[in-house]
Amino acid sequence: MIEIDALTDLVDPVVIAAFEGWNDAADAATSVVQHLIHEWDATVVGRVDPEDYYDFQVNRPLVGTDASGRRTLSWPGTEIAVASPPDMVRDVILVRGIEPSMRWRQFTADLLAACDDLGAQLVITLGALLADTPHTRPVPVSGTSSADISGDHAGLEVSTYEGPTGIVGVIQDACARLDIPAVSLWAAVPHYVAQPPCPKASLALLSRLEDLLGSPLPLGDLPEEAKAWERGVEQLAEEDDDVADYVRQLEEARDAADLPEASGDAIAAEFERYLKRRGEQ
């Protein structure tokens, strides 16, 4: 059970959750949640007891020093924070943690119960996977939803994936069984630059979140960091002929697969996001 700090009633809250580990290539998904926690100055209202769900030989506690010079010990786990973004008409519940080592079903039940106590109306999970996609092209983001809300959001489909899954997949399954509206967004990270961070993938997830929520989200330094990341990868690719040839092959395959209509839709969506953000300013 997760104890939640006493709060006033939240307004139509939406959950945005991401977990380190199998679901989080290049830390792209958890970086989005951490970014929003920082930008919105979110307040932590609950923590999962790590003793019940984590193997501390896999995810070890960290020793450090606080501002007063005292030694501290921080344990791995999952935190729940809430924010009231100034540009949104609803509140947000932000969940950031580590994929648990054990008792996934109880972990999921406790987490969803805590979100239900906060009045959550929609659960959005974020993930990132390694894929054959070139770093020079827009990062693909796929979106799936539970069957009952798939028609309400453009670009979302009912998931047909079959195979191994992580805690994100378990949470999505639990939401479907409990009739909780749920959406899962996944960014495709170029597999040849898998080391974190990947701000370009995080920015792509954030842009897709904007579309889903219908409100501008704070981008902070992510656009500049994404450009710097792409320049850095480009320099590394130019230093290795084999990598450069491989990237060109990926670019050709990607360009051949992209339809003109899809490119037009992408441009229109980006322009709409620009107008919304400009209108808010």
From TrEMBL:
Pfam families: PAC2. Gene3D superfamilies: PAC-like subunit. It comes from the Bacteria. InterPro entries: Proteasome_assmbl_chaperone_2, PSMG2_sf, Rv2714-like. SUPFAM superfamilies: Cgl1923-like. Transmembrane segments: none annotated. This is PAC2 family protein. It comes from Nocardioides jishulii.
